[in-house]
Specification:
It is a single chain. Helix content is 28%, strand content 32%. The chain is α/β, with parallel strands linked by helices. The chain folds into 2 domains: 214 residues, 3-Layer(aba) Sandwich (Rossmann fold), CATH 3.40.50.300; 65 residues, no CATH class. A 6-stranded mixed β-sheet has the order 6-7-8-3-9-10, sandwiched between helices. Strands 2-1-4-5 form a 4-stranded antiparallel β-sheet. Helix 5 packs parallel to helix 6. The relative contact order is 0.14.
């Protein structure tokens, strides 16, 4: 479990990036981290991963380990950057590092830092991405192909914490489908995956929970089940004021809408429409969802 408590961070004292935010990320779940450009999504991931240090507040991460049938929980503070913590974290930046290595060499020289790395998983994920030749030089690959290599490697590390920053940028449509498949294959009850993205629809069917950042605050932190219990997503031919629509947009079948779910009707979460509804109804969202949980 990851607990962010009273966290504040700034690059310049008079310009807060994150201001006294609280949020929690549980194991066994895939989180979508959403927000407008420059809102602090990448910064939050850096703070959780120990790549940046809080100005105020703290991040605490509890990881469970099973030895000889006995489960033991260890608490870490990311900024301490303990080796046993770092070997259970994989962070994929939006921009790929420059490298003269071949895929094969990259695997050889980096896998040793991750005790649970699986060469079999890496090969399987590469095959899912239709990458068959590991002797290719990374610097000669296209941006999208290079990203697929690093995604495959990161998931094959089998760390308990996986942070992916805009992973679908640069991927074509078939590769986005493959990405969803391997994320689901790699997921276990012991892992927490946080995906920062602007491409909400690319991840529509893999996210268990949604966190939305608004300026320096957390606007929403809720599980998909809770969201669809309190909000209804669907298509209507027409709407009235009585429907209390939170967001609507034209659709070939009528009007795609988000409204309060007063009758516990079932619907499918639309992440992009949720995002738009949240920013149009901030006060209501604060009432419906306790973003301090």
């Amino acid at each position: 479990m990851i607990e962010v408590k009273n966290l504040s961070f700034y690059y310049k004292r008079n310009k807060l990036v994150l201001d006294d935010i609280d949020c929690m990320f549980r194991k066994g779940r895939i989180y979508g981290l959403l927000g407008k450009n420059g809102v602090g999504k990448t910064t939050l991931l850096h703070l959780i991963a120990g790549l940046k240090f809080p100005k105020l507040g703290n991040v605490t991460i509890n990881l469970s380990y099973n030895a000889n049938g006995i489960e033991n929980e260890i608490s870490y503070t990311p900024q301490e950057r303990k080796v046993e913590f770092l070997q259970d974290v994989f962070f994929l930046n939006e921009e790929m590092p420059e490298s003269d290595f071949t895929i094969e060499q990259m695997e050889k020289y980096n896998a040793c830092f991750y005790p649970n790395f699986s060469a079999e998983d890496f090969n399987n994920y590469l095959q899912e991405f239709e990458i068959d030749n590991k002797k290719q030089e990374l610097k000669k690959l296209s941006f999208g192909t290079k990203k697929k290599v690093y995604i495959a490697f990161g998931l094959a590390c089998n760390t308990k914490l996986i942070f992916l920053d805009e992973p679908t940028n640069g991927l074509d449509i078939p590769s986005k489908s493959s990405f969803r498949k391997i994320v689901m294959k790699a997921m276990t009850e012991e892992k927490t995956i946080i995906i920062s993205t602007h491409q909400a629809r690319d991840l529509q069917n893999v996210l268990d929970s949604i966190v939305i950042l608004d300026k320096t605050k957390v606007l929403l932190n809720a599980d998909a089940e809770e969201i669809t219990k309190k909000l209804w997503f669907g298509i209507e031919e027409k709407v009235s004021v009585a429907d209390k629509v939170l967001y609507q947009e034209d659709n070939v079948a009528g009007l795609a809408i988000v409204r309060e779910n007063k009758g516990e009707e079932e619907s499918n979460l639309d992440v992009e429409m949720l995002f738009n509804a949240a920013f149009l109804n901030k006060n209501l969202f604060n009432e419906l969802f306790n973003n301090k949980k």
